[in-house]
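Handout, tutorial session.
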Amino acid sequence: MDIVNDVIAWYSAHMNYGSITALMTIESSFIPFPSEVVIPPAAFVASEAGSSLAVTGNYPLDVLLIVLFGTLGAVLGAVINYMLSIWLGRPIIYKFADSRLGHLCLLSTEKVQKAETYFNEHGNISTFVGRLIPGIRQLISIPAGLSRMPFGSFLLYTFAGAFLWNAVLALLGYVANGQMELIKAYSHELSVAILVLVVVAIGVFVVYRRLKRR
């Protein structure tokens, strides 16, 4: 898309914590924008210690701060979806998803229904796990809002999931040396691998708690 390419070009020339936060807010809301073009390039630039690349906007970038500000943006975008879902309600959300503007945002009734079904089946923790699933990541905040999930729990799970995903993207940007082709090729595989590890960890924890109770 020309708009996405224009934004990427602008971001390359204005890479700083503010632009990272802004773009990750957009990525986490209902406006489609890939996080793979935000965090990995910034992490690669930050890894170039001693290079002129490592300084943008007259100050150096730090990988940990990149992840933190990216997570802040992701949480802000998620809160936008959460609040809009509470304010508008289910009928308007689904009507918007099937509208022309909704389709421009790559929304559809099927996608929103998929996110809502996932949330209903897995409960509040889906706002954490859902941040690691392509196609669910940006939409999981909608059913959380529709079900009026407690806001504190929503923030905690969303922050944890977004932080983990952004850390993975930062690592990918470093390993791939900022090459977008490799980043796009392996981001999905890494997402699946992290998701599997999280599910296994949760399963082990649940089994441990049950054995401890017995």
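The second record follows below. Compare its token runs with those of the first.
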Amino acid sequence: MTFSPPGRDAVLRDAGVSRETAAALDLYVAQLTRWQSIKNLVGPSTLAEVWTRHIADSLQLLALAPDAARWLDLGSGAGIPGLILAIAGRERPGFRVDLVESNGRKGAFLQETARITGAPAKVHVARIENVVASFTDSQIVTARALAPLPQLLTWTAPLLKNGATGLFPKGRDVLTELTEAEERWRFTADLIPSRTDSEARIVRVSSVSGLLP
């Protein structure tokens, strides 16, 4: 009998991925577990819940942009959500995710894991503010557990003004962050309930017109 980590089968069934994509996600989990002892990629207490805590949380973003092919993930870290999205979305025509991560060791993890999983991802080891404006063809911008919403808008405003949509998973402080962002920026956003955490929301920013005077 094959052992399945807690939640794996339910997450894969809900996502409706192919057998090949499921195998690639298994490779991602194996890599994450191996590299965790070298570099603290995720909170140690969450590793045992990687399928329900990280993978399912990432996969729900795909359903919010079913037609988008060019994704940009900022502060990718352990590849959550960017590399997971690249693995799961690789069967879509032209799908690609650019991963921006300033930490060299984390960048090495992303590059190696993208290679062995066959994910359509390109890793950019660089500071966000130095490269973000160059991703003008991005349709979706994501960032998870990276920075408060006002800072995310500061980084991504050039892309959001150009037609990209922001998908930013947030926790229980989402309303506070939204209020703070509204004090600085003119933008349009809605809150989408998370499928993995009743207290969490995904902030979908559909447009940014500029800073408030």
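Points raised in discussion: The two ends are 64 Å apart (CA to CA).
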